[in-house]
């Protein structure tokens, strides 16, 4: 088996483990804690475990993976530990215990997102041409995970591939499936090509590992605006990842929610191919602005027409524009602005501001907001009554951030419509 095929399988399993439960976890929690006070905060806190773990992930990778042990071995150990933790989560019924078990799992899982990238980088001849093709298998893994747990092919017809399991997306079975996949993946990781630590013997620089040495980029007023707006836009972003699955499930799709949500990743693949085309014609500022406004439009559709299935599907299909136009363009802009010796730390800093700090704040805000408006997420009637208030708040927030960005961001040097786009990569992780 070729190295590229082995790495493709690695990427597939990496995102299958995450995707098989993350989209539908909110639905399970809303049923498990139905009628309990503070149910929205319970859901928000549970999703916040992923973002808390994202803040610590660079330390694990930067110290263990870069200095102490082979990355494929570390990846295997972390996923074997994760398998046990996921199975444990499936047995819990106390919200506090679920929080700590999920947090421990994500502390194991989040560092592996960086590990699989560096394993790939160390074992391919041409990173720019080969990595995007290998990374695509991660998105495919996320899509297949949604179809698997929903036991439906994009909602078009039934796909019963989990013997003995019914309604996997609304029960603890989703964690058990993820646990089995994580265990298989853990053992498989030990067969991956050797990826020894490249920084062995070098001093540990915590500031560099966290990307804080790239803070000097903030001296560029345009980049400062980009960084602040990236943090702010990820506050409403958290609403999508934490609550859309249970919202569309209660309103329209039920057990098939994972299959319908997978259309968002299909859209992501489609618009990923179009990013270079649009970027050369619109430039950085307009691309980022379109991505921000797409979030506002999606939430407005959810809030104003929640009972219209076609409109809800449009909101899901907007994922490609929401994610690719903002995050991929932002990654490219950062790569252009940062000096060569600072590009890795600059990307790490953007990750901390967005997937870490921004979504962390968002997960707590969505829990507080849901309870403040009295949202009952466990029933269709509850969502129908509370959808407008719940979704229009992040829609309005996204519009405000977009206006701030439009009025304050301008970088003529890097907003060229004819610049070299090059190869792009993205992390639909939380896709």
Provide a compact summary of the structure.
With 431 residues, the chain is mostly helical. It has helices spanning 3-22, 25-32, 39-68, 71-89, 95-123, 127-150, 173-189, 206-209, 221-253, 257-304, 309-317, 319-337, 343-372, 380-408. It folds into two domains: 1-198, Up-down Bundle (Growth Hormone, Chain: A); 206-423, MFS general substrate transporter like domains (Growth Hormone, Chain: A), CATH 1.20.1250.20.
Written description of the protein model:
By secondary structure, this protein is mainly alpha-helical. The chain folds into 2 domains: 198 residues, Growth Hormone, Chain: A (Up-down Bundle), CATH 1.20.1250; 218 residues, Growth Hormone, Chain: A (Up-down Bundle), CATH 1.20.1250. The chain contains 14 helices and no strands. Helix 10 packs across helix 11. The radius of gyration is 21 Å and the shape is globular. The C terminus is likely disordered.
Salient structural properties:
disordered C terminus; Growth Hormone, Chain: A; mainly alpha; 431 residues; globular
Total domain modules: 2
Give the helices and strands as they follow along the chain. HHHHHHHHHHHHHH
- CATH class label of the largest domain: Mainly Alpha
Quote the CATH topology of the largest domain.
Answer: Growth Hormone, Chain: A
Strand content: under 5%
